[in-house]
Design goal:
The complex is a heterodimer of chains A (439) and B (309). Chain A has 439 residues and is mostly helical. Chain A folds into two domains: 134 residues, no CATH class; 187 residues, no CATH class. In chain A, 70% of the residues lie in helices and 0% in strands. In chain A, helix 10 packs across helix 17 and helix 12 packs across helix 13. In chain B, helix 2 runs parallel beside helix 8 and helix 5 packs parallel to helix 11. In chain B, strands 2-1-3-4-5 form a five-stranded parallel sheet. Chain B has one domain: SGNH hydrolase (Rossmann fold). Chain B is elongated. Classes of the chains: A mainly alpha (439), B alpha/beta (309). At the A-B interface, helix 1, helix 9, helix 17 and helix 19 of A face helix 1, helix 6 and helix 10 of B.
């Protein structure tokens, strides 16, 4: 079920009331688990079996790894998780490269499989490394793995952060509840009020192919940079908000990423939990900065690109980030203002392969950005230009007002909430899936 | 009650108050709100809110972008609607003819305006998939506010303002607010002889036949009759074109066809479809004017109207 769905919002409100009225932690967990499974299976119930199987396997394997912390058992656990990810997400991609005539495997993709696979791999590695104990309670583990707030598109929550919170019976914290509701509204505003408003304009520009005017193509680059951030950050903001409503603190996934003055800083601010995962469970095990750092960096970012989607455009996007991150290390540091401007444009231009449906569309669009004929179209929607510009220019204001970590109450928040509510009334008519749901 | 608890309940109270107030407003004036959610119903609601007009301009997006109603008459109202069709034009004409004080109706004659698409005159109620979102579907079905929510879309804010202060709008503000560069465009007074660049087509009518002729000529006749029945003069107009569209609409057969429709309807035709308008006066090759073309064409139209008997 989508986050920007009245049934989910009404259901979660009711669930929160019951959750805080019930004094027993075990019952609260049962409520959270049941709700999470219903929400997850709402659109495609067979995905539930995949999720339940993953819960059962990883719970048991975590216990086994704790008793017998053997490398081969860890490898088996990781390979088992990765093989299901590979089968559901990448088999078709690799199959299409084989010189065979038979049909590729069915294209069913369980929602959020990339996210929950990475989450449990981190859990198994942490147990193996004895950084956390294996979870004793199947119920706690099941909620950790399936919690609706983070299941489908992150943040990728570590066991050491969430498991202790789930074990402990918490008292209702009104400040947390208040922040949670406000963040859900803010996330909804970003998604339905900004991202969904920009999406048709960006799609229209991309849909024009060679006909797209030069200025429209550039507007689409900025528009997509705004759309993607609003979409994914909107989801993450709602996720953190939902967590707070139930007294759970989920990690922040975005910290004003377009305010970064270098690519390195960008990746510390964009999809933070994925960056940390890639650093801790891929980059450092590959050798990190100690041995072949350039190779490790490029491989990590390329695989990070592939994680986002089964397509060469994603691979190229990740590879380019890896190469530019390496290049950045060798170049002198720019003054902060110039660094922010350059980094933003590099990131926005690298979203072009990320957005391109295939290589041919990528080449066509890239040519329209930089190659003649330079055509200027006057018919560019005011709404598209104004919302894109305002959203990008007001990033630091937004992230100061609605930080995903500790938030202080603000005097103007009722006015902001009223404005977002009214905007959403009109802007949320259409409903488009979250972009990161497909990853 | 703790400070945090007060803030929480203030926030929840705000949502409830906003929704209830909006619902109350929508139930009392829901018709008007819903009107603002659709290009055709809005234009008719604006005309009603203005209490009538001496001149109305009807047409498609070409008329919308090329004719400034207030340049024809200070109290003129544009009832042009993008993606219009002949059935939509008939609907608008039937309603607009009832406007008090109406003396002149300018009606676009073009292939786009003569299209046979189904009438599209009011915003449909928002659709929510009951299987995906049962609560959303139920709320949408039972809430007047949610049914009229299209009025709150940012592109319709100017329409809401138009219904609140109708005297400030001539029905064509949509054009300026929609396209970014037009918002800042400034148009100088025309140089001497500049308007003469528009040359009116002089093709004459000829006998026509066939189902397409029947449909279009009878449709335009009904539109003209709706106005004439109320004593309103009707003038047909056609806006300038460029490129492929010009080639398509400026062959001999098309020029004679338009002249024949005008003769059948019995209304003068100010046909500038084939006029050699400068490229910079049009915003695209689909017959839409930019600010300069809009100003110049409206001035030319006004000049031609004054010259009519």
């Amino acid at each position: 079920m989508l986050f920007h769905n009245a049934t989910l919002l009404v259901g979660v409100s009711g669930l929160a009331v019951v959750h805080w009225l019930v004094p027993w932690q075990r019952v609260r967990l049962v409520l959270l688990l049941s709700a999470s499974l219903v929400i997850y299976g709402w659109r495609h119930w067979p995905s539930l079996f995949m999720l339940l199987a993953s819960i059962a396997f990883n719970y048991a394997w975590g216990r086994l790894l704790e008793k017998r912390p053997e490398r081969r058992l860890l490898v088996f656990g990781i390979v088992t998780n990765l093989s299901s990810l590979f089968w559901f997400k990448y088999a078709g991609f690799f199959w299409s490269m084989l010189p065979v005539q038979s049909a590729p495997p069915p294209p069913w993709l369980p929602l959020g499989i990339s996210f929950f696979t990475f989450q449990v791999i981190a859990y198994l590695v942490d147990v193996y490394r004895k950084e956390i104990p294996a979870e004793r309670s199947l119920l706690v583990f099941a909620v950790f793995k399936s919690l609706f707030a983070q299941l489908v598109a992150g943040p990728i929550v570590r066991g050491r952060d969430l498991l202790p919170q789930l074990r402990e019976r918490r008292a209702l914290d009104w400040a947390q509840l208040h922040s949670g509701v406000l963040l859900v509204l803010a996330g909804l505003f970003l998604k339905a009020g900004v991202a969904d408003l920009l999406a048709p304009h960006v799609d229209h520009a991309w849909g024009q192919g060679v006909e797209v005017a030069t200025n429209v193509a550039w507007f689409a680059v900025y528009g997509y940079a705004a759309q993607l951030l609003a979409d994914f950050c909107g989801y993450s903001t709602m996720a953190v908000g939902f967590g707070l409503v139930f007294g759970l603190t989920l990690p922040a996934n975005f910290v004003n990423p377009y305010g970064a003055s270098s690519l390195r800083e960008f990746w510390q601010r964009w999809h933070v939990t994925l960056s940390q995962w890639l650093r801790d469970y891929l980059y450092i095990p590959l050798g990190g900065n100690r041995r072949r750092p350039t190779f490790n960096l490029v491989v990590t970012m390329t695989l990070g690109g592939l994680w986002h989607g089964a397509g060469w455009t994603y691979v190229l996007w990740g590879f380019m980030h890896g190469v530019l991150l390496w290049l950045e290390r060798t170049l002198p540091k720019l003054p902060r203002g110039a660094g922010v401007l350059v980094t933003f444009h590099v990131v926005a231009l690298l979203w072009v392969p990320f957005r391109a449906p295939d290589f041919s569309a990528l080449v066509t669009f890239a040519k329209r950005l930089v190659a003649p004929p330079y055509v200027w179209a006057t018919r560019v929607d005011t709404q598209f230009v104004v919302v894109t510009a305002l959203f990008l220019l007001l990033q630091s204001v937004w992230f100061r007002a609605f930080p995903l970590e500790k938030r202080e109450p603000a005097r103007w928040e009722l006015a902001a909430a009223a404005a977002m509510f009214v905007w959403l009334l009109g802007a949320g008519v259409g409903r488009v899936d979250f972009i990161y749901f497909v990853f | 009650m703790s400070h945090a608890r007060t803030r929480f309940f203030a926030l929840i109270g705000l949502f409830i108050w906003l929704f209830s107030a909006g619902e109350g407003l929508a139930r009392r004036g829901g018709g008007r709100l819903r009107d603002a959610g659709h290009r055709v119903s809005f234009k008719l609601a604006l005309l009603e809110a203005k209490g009538g007009a001496p001149v109305v301009v009807l047409g498609s997006s070409r008329g919308n972008d090329c004719v400034q109603a207030s340049a024809i008459d200070p109290h003129g109202v544009s009832l042009t609607t993008p993606s219009s069709s002949l059935p939509t034009l008939e609907h608008v004409a039937t309603k607009a003819a009832l406007a008090p004080g109406l003396k002149l109706a300018l009606v676009e004659l073009s292939r786009r305006q003569a299209a046979d698409d189904l009438p599209d005159v009011a915003a449909p109620a928002p659709q929510v998939d009951a299987e995906e979102d049962p609560a959303g579907a139920w709320l949408t079905q039972h809430s007047a506010l949610l049914q009229a929510r299209g009025a709150f879309a940012p592109e319709n804010w100017a329409r809401l303002a138009g219904l609140v202060v109708p005297e400030a709008f001539d029905g064509s503000e949509y054009f300026r607010s929609r396209w970014f560069v037009e918002t800042f465009a400034r148009v100088p007074e025309p140089a001497p002889g500049e308007l003469d660049l528009f040359v009116r087509d002089t093709a004459g009518p000829a006998p026509q036949a066939g189902p397409e002729w029947e449909r279009i000529s009878s449709g335009y006749a009904r539109v003209a009759d709706a106005f004439r029945a109320r004593g309103v003069k009707v003038v047909l107009y056609a806006t300038p074109t460029l490129g492929a569209l010009r080639e398509e609409e400026c062959d001999a057969a098309s020029r004679v066809f338009r002249a024949s429709v005008a003769a059948h309807v019995g209304a003068p035709l100010l046909d500038f479809t084939c006029s050699a308008a400068p490229r910079e006066w049009l915003a695209d090759t689909e017959g839409h004017c930019g600010s300069l073309g809009r100003a110049r064409f409206s001035q030319k139209l006004s000049q031609e109207l004054r010259a009519l008997p």
